[in-house]
Amino acid sequence: MAAKYIVGIDLGTTNSALARCAEEDGRIEVRSIAQLVNPNELAERTLLPSFIYIPGEFDFPKGGIALPWEPEPKLVIGELARKRGAESPNRLVVSAKSWLSYAGVDRTAPILPWQAPEEVPKLSPVESSSQFLRHLRTVWDNGEEEQRELALAEQDVLLTVPASFDEEARELTRRAAEQAGYPHVTLLEEPQAAFYAWIESQGDTWRHRIKVGDLVLVCDVGGGTTDFSLIMVSEENGELTLKRVAVGDHILLGGDNMDLALARVLQQRLEASGNRIDTWQLHGLWHQCRMAKEKLFDSPKTQNHPITLLGKGTKLVGGTIKTELAREDLDQVLVEGFFPEVASSELPARQRRVGFQELGLPYAADPAITKHLARFLSEQLRNSPEASVMRRGRSGLACPTHILFNGGVMKAAVLRERVVEVLNSWLREEGFDALGAEQILEAPDLEHAVARGAAYYGKARRGRGVRIRSGASRTYYIGIESSMPAVPGMEAPLKALCVVPFGMEEGTEATIPGREFGLVVGEPAEFRFLNSSVRKQDQVGSLLEDWGTDIEELSPLEVTLKMDGQQGKVVPVRLETRVTELGTLEVWCVSRDGTHRWKLELNIREKTAR
User: For all residues of the chain together, what is the average pLDDT?
Assistant: First the structure.
């Protein structure tokens, strides 16, 4: 039976959100999320702060963190976790999503809170992400009566990830979802979801805001990451279509960095007045600066916000230190420090590396987001397969015609205005007019846009909305070893089987018709992938014996496909292929009786050069 709801989930670095779309009317709504906001106080919020607090024995009164569905939880998730974590940061799991994408650590090992004392129990990045998803599922399943009858796991769930997540980070995200009780989810890029949210907010009028040939820059600055994407407007069968043509690197730079920068300024101020601020107090200052920053941005007329820090020692009155965050601090530290006015040729600096480093997240060395944007736009015409149709400037800069903001950081009007100001200065230098108000695609709700856009995409997949198309820029093949007698000193000839034809859209699948192949199971085997940028005529299932120089071989994939009791056996299989919404080629090998399925994966999305 078809799912009644399409559900979009934004698993954010700082906040998570959930939106649903009912199949019968197609209306999208953001759902509230029950969570503890104070001890013994459960409240509904439209955002779930992505924080986990691991309580100690005496952190809360007995029964103070009980939930209607869990009388004695071992973890606190959401708003109360964020509040208590500001006081005891060594028990707070933060930025789990960033850790999930960091290959420098074992992401399945219990390492969070990072560098917490040994007595504090720890979670892995996968388990932390799973806890947020489990909380959303539990709230849904225990919510309004209609939802209780329709378990979230049985709905059409779309889960968003950064566009720059690699294959392993995506797979770990899927694993987190499975552990949380979601057997089937579709992953979708956050910038695309943000664009879908804008389309949904515009109704049919979006077609009057953009035209064929336009290039839309999606500028997504969230709590922990910055991502850039370019979406091109084209025409197909007389109708406007949208195609994602470029994705930037995964940049660990966002609101967390900004909050720490503000905390450092206040630390220097306090230490100059005779107060010693240790690491523990700095973490508390960091979280308080985040809350103060948000309040100042939400209230433009307010000039200062008080900060109270727990002190140490007997000389402090009431055991606290008081200071304040001023609006001029936001202007100087955030606007000028993270969004400076720079030329399009000013790329991010690479700082001198110290020989020994503390292990931790690989944050961006240069905090200037506008410099990272300059690098992204300057690289596209050198590396993107769509370079020939992008609007280019005199120096070769990709020049957007529109900009769409996303991410909690960009809620601040002063930051959006600075990005537009800098981008316009580049456009004028490149020989184009500056962006006007009509070319700034204002998203109606930056905090919930990704969740809403994911739900809209679910509608579009069912033919009830506009889809952003992104076809494969090359033709892809897998190598098939020929069945021929062995010849001394020579390998068996390799045939090329087309599995992804040029232009095959992401989110679509195909079956290799009328053929079976032998699959080696139970021992290490090498799987060879090939591609071509010139052969656009080959279709799924085409088997080429003499493929020549117009097909290039990629790095082989060596894996062991397991099958109980079968070692080194060749199993007859049929092949199914799918290009996911995230640009991953999945080759599924299905046994003749259908009881076994094995998956091979290859990232076929073009990456910008580093």
Answer: 87
Higher-confidence residue: 413 or 493? 413
Q: Is pLDDT at 242 greater than 90 in this prediction?
A: no
As a whole number, mean pLDDT of residues 232-258 equals 81
| Contact yes or no for 320/288 (Cβ under 8 A) | no
Strand spans (E) along 150-256: 156-161, 186-189, 215-221, 226-236, 239-247
Of 103, 105, 111, which is closest to residue 127 (Cα–Cα)? 111
Q: What is the pLDDT of residue 503?
A: 77
Domain co-membership, 265 together with 180: no
* 20-46 residue pLDDT tens: 998 878 899 999 999 999 999 999 999
**Same domain as 171, residue 35:** yes
559 belongs to a structural domain: yes
Q: Write the CATH number for 166.
A: 3.30.420.40
Asked whether residue 483 falls in the same domain as residue 566, the answer is yes
Distance CA 352, CA 333 (A): 23
Q: Look at residues 164, 188, 212 and tell me which one is the last residue of a structural domain.
A: 188
Most confident of 61-75, 157-171, 459-473, 476-490: 61-75
Q: Which tens digit of pLDDT belongs to each residue from 136-176?
A: 999 999 986 655 568 999 999 999 998 778 778 888 999 99
Q: Which of 485, 478, 519 is nearest to 500 (CA)?
A: 478
Strands 494-500 and 475-481: antiparallel
Q: Where are the beta strands (DSSP E) in 367-474?
A: 402-406, 440-441, 468-469
Contact 482, 517 (CB under 8 A): no
Q: Tell whether 263 and 175 lie within a shared domain.
A: no
Query: Can you give the CATH number for the domain in which 512 is found?
Result: 2.60.34
pLDDT of residue 53: 97
Q: What is the DSSP string of 237-262?
A: TTEEEEEEEEE---B--SHHHHHHHH
- Report the C-alpha gap between 321 and 315 in whole angstroms: 11
Residue 314 is predicted with a pLDDT of 44
Q: Where are the alpha helices (DSSP H) in 57-104?
A: 79-87, 96-100
Range of the domain at 498: 475-603
Shared domain check, 155 and 304: no
Q: Is residue 221 part of a domain?
A: no
Is the separation of the CB atoms in 98 and 225 below 8 Å? yes
- The answer as to whether 202 is a domain residue is no
Number of domains, the chain:
3
What angle (nearest 5°) sits at the alpha carbon of residue 227, between those of residues 436 and 394? 50
pTM over 0.85: no
- CB neighbour class for 499 (10 Å; exposed up to 12, middle 13-18, buried from 19): buried
* Alpha carbon distance, N-terminus to C-terminus of the chain: 46
> What is the distance between the alpha carbons of residues 499 and 504, in angstroms, rounded to a whole number?
10
**Of 82, 88, 80, 74, which Cα lies nearest the Cα of 131?**
74
Residue 452 lies in a domain: no
In degrees, rounded to 5, the angle at the alpha carbon of residue 214 between the alpha carbons of residues 212 and 215 is 140
Which tens digits make up the pLDDT trace of 355-404? Answer: 555 556 777 889 999 999 999 999 887 766 666 778 888 898 999 999 99
Residue type, 270: L
Which amino acid is residue 68, in one-letter code? P
pLDDT computed for residue 352 by the predictor: 53
- The pair of structure tokens assigned to 516 is 């079976």
Tell whether 174 and 72 lie within a shared domain.
yes
